[in-house]
């Protein structure tokens, strides 16, 4: 018999006879009540077993984690918290689960333990919810851009362009390691590793994306990105997904407008389509908050935070203003804020970013016009800046609890200025001949940004560690499977 998704059964508006549901047992109480989940929703369906007419052998095999099929009538439930339940007439064990050994017994597991069991953690309520929210957000990303007429472009994953990612790139080789050519000191000569060419895994599809924007007008990429980050922060992964729109004839202001509108759209989409999962995650967070001291508890619940982002414009602040705020906000009395002091020209640390967002403005912030020497070579130099204090048309979007979630800029469209800048920092013109072609043939103002998809999922789910919002996190500790 065809089975029905539990989500659809729970949405029914009337009783039904003879339905079949398939799923995994969450709990089995009193030899009678099975809480069954099939992954279609956070909610379990209660299945009431006729234990007097079911063999003891079958009942014994209804254990947490087992896959089963139940058939029976969908009837109104007397129990609390559910409208309907299945009065089981046929119970079939599809796959046993050794309850003694099944690691996902319903109890509170530490996130570290769950990370070590990434293949099974998705059987828990929290990870099922996070992965459904992630999937809906991915769909919303495509929907937003497709509805606006952007062209989806797949930029290469293996690439020879390495101008951007100094020190952060995974090398790609086509040969067995022991047959790679070596230099006189015996070190591998990576310059010859991919069929005789030097290649890496992409750190960003932007440069390639720009070439397509300068033909198709509005494009976006959404694909895996790799950075050999040997750091152990809660917001960096070695493999993450990046969304990178690029738009011809758009300047930095247009770029900020696009980024803000896009983020608000996808957050709203999640609120409209994942409310059960988000409410579950909110409840989980509220429980966690209770164990914190009063003054460290969040002022807003998860749904309030998400709604706040929809209802409030992001605060736009120049880098220079931000530095002034950070200097003014550094009280001498409170030692823990000493780190806030920073000088014009320095890159902001995540503590600075989070101070601006969480303590000062108390809303998402777009910082723009950064010093040229801390940003990438391709960003548009601002006209009329003081010598020694040159700034570029760059912007970062900073979010509460996370810090940077978007990095974007208007690109330097002037061939001569771009080449001059590349020379200064030692990038060979020949290496990027194809990129420079966009400036040779029909150059124009254009801009774009990169948004780390997992940082967006972090914000929407209220989770605090990026390892918990991607199915199989790649970090220095997690690459076994
Ligand atoms: P950060 O300052 O956090 O290291 P970045 O400035 O190096 O980020 P960009 O090169 O600006 O990052 O990349 C654009 C976006 O990609 C970032 O704003 C962030 O959302 C995301 N991102 C960058 N590095 C990572 C990473 N290692 N893991 C997950 N997301 C990342
Ligand atoms: Mg970085
Ligand atoms: Mg950064
Ligand atoms: Mg950045």
From TrEMBL:
Chief place where the protein resides: cytoplasm
Catalytic activity: tRNA(Asn) + L-asparagine + ATP = L-asparaginyl-tRNA(Asn) + AMP + diphosphate + H(+)
Pfam families assigned to the protein according to its UniProt record, in alphabetical order: tRNA-synt_2, tRNA_anti-codon
Cell compartments where the protein resides: Cytoplasm
GO biological process, one term: asparaginyl-tRNA aminoacylation
Keywords: Aminoacyl-tRNA synthetase, ATP-binding, Cytoplasm, Ligase, Nucleotide-binding, Protein biosynthesis
UniProt xrefs under CDD domains: AsxRS_core, EcAsnRS_like_N
Keyword Isomerase listed: no
PROSITE patterns reported in the protein's UniProt record: AA_TRNA_LIGASE_II
Coiled-coil zones: none
Keyword Phosphoprotein: no
Domain Aminoacyl-transfer RNA synthetases class-II family profile: 131-471
GO CC terms: cytoplasm
Enzyme Commission number: 6.1.1.22
GO molecular function, one term: asparagine-tRNA ligase activity
NCBIfam families per record: asnS, PRK03932.1
Subunit structure: Homodimer.
Cross-referenced HAMAP family: Asn_tRNA_synth
Similarity-based family: Belongs to the class-II aminoacyl-tRNA synthetase family.
The name this protein goes by in its record: Asparagine--tRNA ligase
Gene: asnS
